[in-house]
Fold this sequence. Notes:
- The chain is of the alpha+beta class.
- The chain has 2 domains: 8-19 and 115-404, no CATH class; 23-104, no CATH class.
- Helices cover 33% and strands 23% of the residues.
- It contains 11 helices and 17 strands.
- It has helices spanning 47-53, 56-67, 71-80, 118-136, 138-151, 155-167, 249-257, 275-300, 306-317, 336-340, 397-404, and strands at 8-13, 33-36, 41-45, 90-94, 103-104, 115-116, 178-180, 183-184, 188-200, 207-212, 219-220, 229-235, 240-247, 326-330, 368-378, 381-388, 391-396.
- A hairpin with a 2-residue loop joins strand 15 (368-378) and strand 16 (381-388).
- Helix 2 (56-67) packs antiparallel against helix 3 (71-80), helix 4 crosses helix 5 and helix 5 runs antiparallel to helix 6 (155-167).
Amino acid sequence: MKTNENNNFYLQVITPVHVGAGKEKWWHPGADYFYDKKEQVVRVIDQKKLGDLLDEKEILNYVSAIENRKIHDFFLYLKNTRKLSFDDFSKEYFMPFTPENEIKTMIRTGLGVPYIPGSSIKGAIRSALFGWAYNNDPELKNRIEATKREYNRNPKKLGNKLDECLFGSINNNLMRLLQVSDVNFKDTMLHNSKIFNLQGQPYGDEWYGGWKHRGHDGTDDDFKVNGFTSTYETLIINEWAPVRLIVNEMAFDLYNKFPRVQKPDNLHILKQREPYNALFNIINFSTRSYIEKEIEFFENYTAEKTDLIIEELEFCKNQIPDDNNSCLLKMGAGTGFHAITGNWQYDVFTDTGIHEKGRFAGKKKYKSRKISFANYEGDDGTQTLFFPMGFVKIYNQKAWNELEA
């Protein structure tokens, strides 16, 4: 009988990854952080450290400075009168672009360690499995299409019913055979993001690529570093950490030994001779298909800098190996409709139809993308790079050893 021992896997950040901590934990300008334009850094205030350095009167003055938007004057007092350094009570993040609003923070453990929840990774794997099954299993595809037709007028039930087609009921779900641990990281960085958006006349046939700079009718061809941007705390690109990924092979043996025991639907998807290699093959199939459709989208809807986005998508695609000893997965903020649903509803992303009713009536469906951008030092000096958000790569021990060699 197979044991359920932990398997060694490693997760590497390929493009900016953000899993949110919730609005109540965002960093607010003036209260939680301030921007030093001269030094091009965001200084995030450690409220506990600062509180320990202040007396009761200074704490009241600090709160008053926040309320009256005179925090700059208070920090000058700390620097010139108290002779305190910013390093005494804040953490510094390089950021060449001024944040426009709150900074969306990364989820952390109770000890303040940034991490990716195992549930987020498992959810992304779930989406990839669904997309693969739709495209590779004719019987499942027919069931999914029949369920769509049956519940098309009841969208509240449709999602759950589609899920049941592949994974089964909550009490006997295929995904219960897959366990994924949380993944802890050492540090984070900041990335700005902007919305790439399609522009065109309502119900029109012609749509064009552009960048969104303001709320209503604020999209044009030119990229600008400010206007309608969001700043995210993200994991650092190329950083890695160990992750536990377990396919419950012991359960497969039990199902063979006791055939009357109810099995999860579509058990054959995970019950393979080499289950991890098979799982990575499924994930890579789904991610490759998604990236190829995204490249076609940006080739069709061009605007300033779309060539750089395509370059990065090509780079990500080249991360997918032929041997399936590693896999590329998209997850977290900026995942978008197509990836988060499993990339099965449209053969191409350039033909998604038009909203017929509601506040988006007349507009093209699924027409926007959240693109991260940041300055990096290269051989040719400082370059602004553009990233589709949320790509991570998971390696088995063999692939990781080869990478480290």
